[in-house]
């Protein structure tokens, strides 16, 4: 038996999401997101975020959300500042750059975060009018390395951005796990008021697909749908996304799924440590990063689906295990029992 810890989108969707989609399947709904389900879901998201005037739009995936938002908010001569480990920079094959914009990277901390003081030299350098002008800061919460921004950290970063005419956009592919983490000290409304735009990830937290993009300041949204259409991110059957997001925000389901994923990842992380496997970083969310001896990787290949993350040294590789809403204690314990002690 192989245990699935490769990512948090290996499984389709929470059963309640599928049930809701099936119930609406043959009703007949207006297309392009102009349906009743999308309208209700957008209202519900505005309600749970405490942002009654925010714009909410659905897109199919995280790369679409990142490219669309950054390209929409920036002027043609502006660039996005991004941690060097950020998804916009590292895993999107130049999709954002293909819109004509530049990415300015800053070194992330080992947990994947950046802080205001790191941006000062870059802003000073780019006062030169022959260089691109920084216009936006992109971060992820949770970060690519599984960490969570605290309220103090995010407040400091957003304050800096407002003082320097920068937008702050937050990749929320794993926002459910971030806000459900024990390391988090913010409510969703508190988080939502500390950025100009963010998205609520569904693909990696229990929907079939889809992200709910929120632009928090209405004055920034004029012409957005036309940009959404221009960048090929409007779905004809947009009502499917409306049904899904309406469902996951009923009865706290979105955060219940995030907590389940985090709890199973913590169980796995603690179990690996107890067996002598060394961690690359301590993660408080649903990703677990382990420094695996290369001679043990054939065993991992036999019992588990996982992902190589990065080289560590000549004899070790950092590998990533990811838990999701469907991960159970039996999955974790069965996998751990198949691994040798490295003590």
UniProtKB/TrEMBL annotation:
Keyword line: Aminotransferase, Pyridoxal phosphate, Transferase
Co-factor requirement: pyridoxal 5'-phosphate
Presence of the UniProt keyword Signal in the record: no
Gene3D superfamilies in alphabetical order: Aspartate Aminotransferase, domain 1, Type I PLP-dependent aspartate aminotransferase-like (Major domain)
Domain Aromatic amino acid beta-eliminating lyase/threonine aldolase: 14-291
Recorded GO MF terms: lyase activity; transaminase activity
Family of this protein: Belongs to the threonine aldolase family.
Designated name of the protein: Aminotransferase class I/II-fold pyridoxal phosphate-dependent enzyme
Phylogenetic placement of the source organism: Bacteria, Bacillati, Bacillota, Clostridia, Eubacteriales
